[in-house]
């Protein structure tokens, strides 16, 4: 019975409001979802409403008041679709054919999202009755009076076209009623002027917030439904507006008497109230930048932006707007009473999406004043409650001048060596790695160079070798406000409200996600301006997070930064992980354990001076007057020249008080000198050689492995031989060569990075005296010519200098100094000189001396030598004297006394010896038939003739097997060209004999 009464109440309401067959949209609102349907059959609409009303998640049912385009029935004909998607449209203002009702909503003032109390509810009904009486005195007919569940409704029948004029009339009427009848307890909602406004379906429940005794959920109902005797026309509305000219709103006027608003603004135009005039700000671009979608239209010579969603509140989506007037003034607000009721909210909107950023110079100046004030208070020179002026109380000097720490920092900047001072301060707490420290210093200075593209640092090295300690040491030398304490995840960076421009951001052994790597590419490219990042919050609302400008990034990882495009944007340096460095670190730790504490409660004077030095460093524009004279040995990576230029700029900026300075258009400019180039080029070359891989972007282990391949002297080298050379495990070497997968990420190896490295899968035959063993193995090949073309060196110089610097291969442009075998060879490798690599390797062998000369190929026998297992001997060859050796003379055949050394041969000389012996072999005539021989496709052992090389030809009849050298020789002899056969054998050999063989031919 109750259900039938509710159905009858809802149906009678719909039949009163709408003509038979008129298309209406029923909309059900719930938390985070909207359900909607179009109906021509009102009984079906009532049935759908009653079915869904039992769902307590639905806050209310609403209907479009004005006449809807009949074609919209095809969207969802006589049915309600639950949880519409983004592609599912609802009724828009343009879908309304005519205006049929003028809605007046009297809503109690209360917090949003809750039901009204009984007193608030009663006050709204009383106020609605007052408004009805007022409009009756103006000649208006009786309206439909209804209880909305929380407030009161008045509906007046009208008949107006759906155009801007009608919209303006309805809006002005609502605003007149707002001015005359809104109180501190009840408000007339002025936002109900749009044509597609939805309205409460009377007879349904209204749920806002939880159902509490003092704020209950109520069912809406019609209180008075008079017959529609007269329909209001446009003239009736105009008459009301003209009757109250003091309160009437001309286009652009908005009177207000609401709490929290400026009472003097009453009667002002929006343009006058928009006191914030920003001619430099394009409001359309600003809205697009922060993904605030809108519909724009002309307005009083300016532009009106109707926002698709309200940025001030999540309780509604419509009603928000922004206006930019011709003079640049901006006004923004929302028509909803709960959202300001149309008051000026542009400053609040801008602060929410584009908060002002404090300039680092201002922050540093404030920090200096605070530190000086604390020092003066501690010394008793000023009272704690006394405000400190710009000059010190006793001396009349500025705080910086009265602070001895800043005095020393200022002295260093003006006449000292700030780079050496910072490096020495770094060395007080960290052993070695001065190149790493220098990169970090230049990275910090890049924040103060206005025209810098930013210098960021990637440090790679083995775990536990001091990467984190080096970064932490440098972080202690900069002011606390310029760094983030502790570790930071990649996602947290976008939600840190206290992240200031110029902050040092450290990612220490953090696994860089694909998303973070893309972000790193963006922030390193957008160094001088903030980097916006668009995402969604937990409510799936668009959110724009921003990383401020001039932030520098320090990344420390064992395997490097990951993506090659990320590494290319950074100074790539290696931590020193040599044994000598390990011993120095150990000695320092042991010495420190014996020392007494030094200033345990605070920071040292050196650290204070370093921090003051960074605070006193001014932002400058650096000009490089000799830039066109700079030459690069290789400019393949186009970011490397930019890095060198930034190194020059940062060096000049660090010494800015010792350089020529000019002020141009209010910007301080510094002229770099050739001394700055010398410092920058020295570091740049080091990063391309012994302390980094700026050119080829290899890690230190990868670079050392290429060194091992280049200097091993083995034509085809196996993993086991590389293990002997490097001392690394098989798994480590395989990963370096082939790459590997880890946590879903692919790390490429040398076979992908370096074109000089290749591999072969082959069968190896080994053994002596006719006994052979065959096994499958993988060997790696090294092409020095490809490597030389790939590397191309990292030298830079100035054109027009001395003649020796015009040569890019000149040693003066290369890193100097002996840093052990690996580092020295890497430096030689950077120069592209392969012979220098060999000589450096030989000089690094302890006790090695020049080989004895006079040993000839003709005096040796290949049978007296056996292959050396594993790594070649570090002994010069007895014939050529310049290479490491792979063949050793047998002990049982060594000549002379025990004092005579065993003779050694390199692989090239051994091949020459074998070829020399083969040429002297003369078989009996008619025993060998080369014309009957066919190539072998499987290994059958050694040659039957020379017993030295692997057989590759076979005679099926006699089952004679020959190597390639013997086959070519016998083939030449069979054609009567003995001398040509000898020459063919020599051409196949790895080298010609330096002496003529004196042995007579041998007959087998």
Helix content: 25-40%
If helices are DSSP runs of H or I spanning 4 or more residues, what is the number of helices?
Answer: 30
Low-confidence blocks of residues: 245-267, 275-279, 388-401, 801-853, 977-1004
- Shape field: elongated
Write down the overall mean pLDDT: 75
How many β-strands, per DSSP?
Answer: 37
End-to-end distance, in Å? 124 Å
**Whole-angstrom Rg:** 44 Å
| Helix-strand makeup class | alpha+beta
Which sheet architecture does the biggest sheet show?
6 strands, antiparallel
- Beta-strand portion reads 15-25%
Walkthrough of the structure:
The structure is a single chain. With 1004 residues, this protein is of the alpha+beta class. It is 33% helix and 18% strand. The chain contains 30 helices and 37 strands. The strands form 12 sheets. Strands 4, 5, 6, 7, 8 and 12 form a 6-stranded antiparallel beta sheet that branches. A 4-stranded antiparallel beta sheet has the order 2-1-3-9, with helices on one face. Helix 12 (418-429) packs antiparallel against helix 18 (605-616) and helix 26 (820-831) runs antiparallel to helix 27 (834-844). The chain is elongated, with a radius of gyration of 44 Å. The termini are far apart. Residues 245-267, 275-279, 388-401, 801-853 and 977-1004 have low confidence and may be disordered.
Q: Which helices and strands appear, and what pairs or packs with what?
A:
Blueprint: H1 2-17, E1 24-30, E2 33-39, H2 42-53, E3 58-64, E4 67-68, E5 96-108, H3 118-137, E6 144-147, E7 152-161, H4 164-181, E8 186-188, E9 198-200, E10 205-206, E11 218-219, E12 221-224, H5 234-243, H6 270-273, H7 283-289, E13 294-299, E14 302-307, E15 320-324, E16 330-334, H8 346-353, H9 360-378, H10 399-402, H11 404-415, H12 418-429, H13 434-445, E17 457-460, H14 467-476, E18 504-508, H15 514-525, E19 531-536, E20 542-547, E21 552-557, H16 564-567, E22 571-574, H17 579-593, H18 605-616, E23 621-623, E24 630-632, H19 639-654, E25 661-664, E26 667-671, H20 674-687, H21 700-711, H22 719-726, H23 730-738, E27 740-742, E28 745-747, H24 750-753, E29 757-766, E30 773-782, H25 784-791, E31 796-798, H26 820-831, H27 834-844, E32 865-867, E33 887-889, E34 904-905, H28 907-919, E35 934-935, E36 953-955, E37 960-962, H29 964-974, H30 978-988
Parallel strand pairs: 17-21, 17-22, 18-21, 23-26
Antiparallel strand pairs: 1-2, 1-3, 3-9, 4-5, 5-7, 5-8, 6-7, 6-12, 10-11, 13-14, 14-15, 15-16, 19-20, 24-31, 25-26, 27-28, 29-30, 32-33, 33-34, 35-36, 36-37
Helix pairs in contact: 1-2, 4-5, 11-18, 12-13, 12-18, 19-20, 26-27, 29-30
């Amino acid at each position: 019975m109750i259900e039938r009464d509710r159905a009858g109440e809802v149906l009678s309401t719909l039949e009163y409001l709408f003509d038979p067959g008129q298309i209406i949209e029923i909309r059900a609102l719930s938390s985070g979802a909207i359900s909607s349907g179009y109906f021509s059959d009102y009984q079906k609409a009532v049935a759908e409403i009653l079915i869904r009303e039992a769902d307590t998640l639905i806050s209310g049912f609403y209907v479009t008041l004005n006449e809807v385009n009949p074609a919209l029935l095809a969207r969802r004909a006589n049915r309600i679709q639950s949880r519409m998607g983004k592609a599912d449209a609802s009724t828009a203002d343009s879908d309304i054919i005519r205006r049929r009702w003028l809605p007046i909503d009297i809503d109690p003032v209360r917090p949003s999202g809750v039901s009204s109390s009984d007193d608030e509810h009663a006050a709204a009904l009383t106020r609605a009755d007052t408004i009805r009486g007022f409009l009756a005195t103006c000649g208006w007919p009786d309206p439909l009076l209804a209880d909305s569940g929380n407030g009161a409704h008045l509906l007046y029948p009208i008949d107006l076209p759906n155009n801007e004029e009608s919209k303006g009339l309805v809006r002005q009427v609502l605003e007149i009623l707002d001015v005359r009848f809104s109180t501190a307890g009840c408000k007339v909602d002025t936002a109900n002027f749009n044509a597609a406004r939805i309205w409460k379906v009377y007879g349904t429940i209204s749920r806002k917030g939880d159902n509490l005794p003092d704020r209950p959920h109520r069912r809406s109902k019609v209180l008075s439904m008079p017959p529609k005797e007269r329909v209001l026309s446009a003239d009736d509305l105009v008459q009301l507006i003209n009757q109250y000219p003091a309160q009437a709103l001309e286009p652009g006027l908005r009177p207000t008497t609401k709490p929290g608003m400026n009472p003097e603004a009453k009667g002002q135009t929006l343009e006058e109230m928009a006191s914030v005039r920003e001619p430099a700000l394009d409001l359309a671009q600003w809205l697009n930048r922060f993904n605030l979608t809108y519909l724009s239209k002309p307005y009083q010579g300016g532009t009106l932006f109707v926002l698709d969603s309200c940025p001030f509140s999540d309780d509604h989506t419509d009603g928000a707007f922004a206006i930019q007037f011709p003079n640049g003034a901006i006004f923004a607000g929302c028509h909803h009473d709960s959202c300001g009721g149309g008051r000026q909210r542009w400053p609040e909107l801008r602060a929410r999406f584009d908060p002002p950023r404090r300039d680092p110079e201002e922050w540093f100046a404030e920090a200096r004043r605070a530190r000086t004030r604390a020092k003066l208070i501690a010394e008793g020179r000023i009272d704690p409650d006394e405000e400190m002026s710009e000059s010190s109380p006793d001396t009349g000097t500025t705080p910086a001048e009265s602070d001895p720490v800043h005095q020393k920092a200022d002295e260093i900047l003006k006449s000292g060596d700030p780079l050496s001072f910072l490096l020495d301060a770094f060395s007080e707490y960290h052993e070695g790695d001065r190149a790493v420290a220098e990169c970090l210093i230049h990275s910090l200075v890049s924040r103060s160079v206005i025209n810098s593209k930013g210098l960021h640092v990637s440090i790679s090295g083995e775990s536990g070798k001091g990467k984190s300690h080096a970064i932490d040491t440098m972080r202690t030398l900069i002011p606390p406000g310029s760094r983030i304490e502790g570790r930071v995840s990649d996602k947290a960076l976008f939600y840190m409200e206290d992240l200031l421009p110029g902050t040092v951001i450290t990612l220490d052994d953090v696994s860089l996600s694909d998303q973070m790597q893309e972000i790193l590419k963006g922030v390193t490219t957008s160094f001088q301006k903030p980097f916006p990042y668009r995402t969604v919050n937990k409510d799936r609302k668009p959110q724009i997070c921003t990383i401020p400008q001039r932030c520098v990034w320090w990344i420390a990882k064992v395997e490097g930064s990951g993506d090659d495009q990320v590494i290319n944007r950074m100074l790539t340096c290696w931590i020193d992980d040599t044994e000598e460095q390990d011993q120095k670190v150990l000695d320092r730790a042991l010495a420190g354990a014996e020392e007494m504490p030094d200033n345990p409660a605070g920071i040292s004077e050196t650290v204070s001076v370093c921090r003051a030095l960074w605070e006193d460093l001014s932002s400058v524009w650096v000009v490089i007057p000799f830039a066109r004279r700079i030459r690069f040995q290789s400019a393949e990576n186009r970011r490397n020249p930019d890095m060198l230029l930034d190194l020059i700029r940062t060096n000049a900026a660090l010494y800015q008080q010792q350089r020529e300075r000019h002020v141009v258009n209010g910007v301080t400019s510094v002229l770099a000198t050739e001394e700055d180039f010398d410092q920058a080029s020295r570091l740049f070359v080091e990063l391309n050689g012994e302390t980094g891989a700026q050119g080829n972007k290899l890690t230190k282990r990868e670079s050392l492995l290429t060194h091992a391949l280049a200097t091993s002297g083995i034509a085809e080298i196996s993993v086991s031989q590389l293990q002997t050379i490097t001392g690394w495990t098989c798994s480590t070497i395989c990963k370096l060569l082939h790459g590997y997968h880890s946590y879903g990420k692919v790390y490429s190896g040398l076979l992908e990075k370096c074109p000089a490295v290749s591999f072969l899968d082959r069968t190896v035959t080994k053994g002596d005296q006719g006994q052979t063993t065959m096994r499958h193995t993988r060997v790696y090949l090294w092409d020095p010519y490809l490597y030389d073309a790939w590397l191309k060196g990292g030298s830079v110089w100035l054109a027009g200098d001395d003649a020796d610097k015009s040569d890019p291969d000149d040693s003066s442009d290369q890193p100097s100094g002996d840093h052990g075998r690996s580092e020295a060879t890497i430096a030689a490798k950077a120069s592209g000189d392969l012979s220098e690599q060999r000589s450096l390797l030989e000089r690094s062998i302890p006790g090695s001396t020049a080989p004895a000369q006079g040993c000839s190929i003709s005096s040796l026998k290949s049978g007296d030598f056996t292959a050396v297992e594993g790594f070649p001997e570090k002994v010069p060859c007895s014939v050529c004297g310049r290479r490491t050796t792979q063949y050793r003379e047998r002990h049982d055949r060594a000549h002379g006394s025990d004092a005579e050394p065993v003779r050694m041969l390199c692989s090239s000389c051994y091949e020459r010896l074998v070829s020399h012996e083969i040429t002297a072999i003369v078989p009996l005539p008619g025993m060998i038939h080369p014309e009957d021989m066919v190539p072998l496709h499987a290994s059958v052992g050694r040659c039957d003739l020379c017993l030295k090389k692997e057989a590759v030809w076979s005679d099926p009849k006699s089952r004679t097997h020959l190597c390639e050298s013997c086959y070519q020789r016998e083939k030449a002899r069979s054609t009567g060209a003995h001398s040509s056969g000898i020459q063919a054998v020599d051409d196949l050999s790895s080298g010609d004999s330096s002496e003529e063989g004196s042995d007579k031919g041998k007959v087998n």
